[in-house]
Endoribonuclease YbeY (Anaerosacchariphilus hominis), 166 residues
Amino acid sequence: MTINIEDESTTPLPDVDTEGIANKVIEAAMDYESCPYEAEVNLLLTDNAGIHEINRNHRGIDRPTDVLSFPMLEYERPADFSPMEEDAVDCFNPETGELLLGDIIISTDKVIEQAEKYGHSREREYAFLIAHSMLHLFGYDHEVPQEAAVMEQKQAAILESLNILR
């Protein structure tokens, strides 16, 4: 598994092992969804100004958000990895053979704000945002209540498997 982490935030998370947590949560999400491949994920840590710009440029939404997910794959059904080998040219890194899942962008400002708002640790909030984003990279969404309920259950299960609790 390759996780490319870039930190361009102006608000560090000194009490959070950003690399260690990212590795644990991404691996747990892959295990939970039974991903049969080694995978590559890109993680960008930025601040509210940085994520605001990306949100505006890529989604047309003119405000900061906590996390953005840019999946590299399209799924017929969420986490259905069976057709991936048919599209090997588009789905796998030719140098490493790893499945290219996509990009996660997290605002460290929002990690701090939301941890305080929800009364849990920054580590838990950071882990939650990664788990949430990984599910998007696997093709899940939360546009309707039924989809949201599925994502909420899966996020909770991933974090519980790591004993990262509220």
